[in-house]
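Ticket #4471: structure output looks truncated?

Reporter: J.K.
Steps to reproduce: submitted the chain below (178 residues) through the standard prediction queue, then opened the result file.
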Amino acid sequence: MAELHILGQLQGVSRFQDSSSLFCRYSFQSGPNWTVISGCPEGQTICGKTDYDKGVVWSHPIDIHYVTRGIQGWPKLVLQVSCLDSIGRSWVVGYSCCSLPSVPGHHIIQVPCWAPVATTLTDRIRQYFLGGSHQLIESDIVNLGKDRYKLHTQSKGNIKLQIDIILRNFCQFGVEYK
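Returned output as attached by the reporter:
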């Protein structure tokens, strides 16, 4: 079987407007041909306070090992940046999805984040005084992109991802890489 080993780290976020503490929940999504043989396909970073540059450093390690019989359903990384306020409430402030590189080697990726926008005056007032933000009910919109064109969104910032991709035995299945 062909093997894919993903090593790296979620380094942090930059240019986030939220001044509260930020953390990130992540999960790897892959097709039915892919099987995780070691590592955790989902997790959460530590919570960090934004600095003067509107960024947070997490340096959260990622280590996951897949086996597969083909490249269909190549793994993606789905990310949710959440905010933790001073009284312990948390809510999602940014969504993102990243297709992982299919070329072996070291990769540094800037993943842009977005969030739904309050469209009515009532929602904007509620959000201003009570905090929180609009949340997605169906998370498939993030990783599949289905019906995302119907949403009103705004850019929130970037997640910096450092990944090392190791491929093994893909040549036996007719996959060539340079």
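Triage note (M.O.): checked the attachment and the full token line is present. Strands lie at 2-14, 21-29, 35-39, 42-44, 56-68, 76-84, 90-99, 105-116, 153-168.
Status: closed, working as intended.
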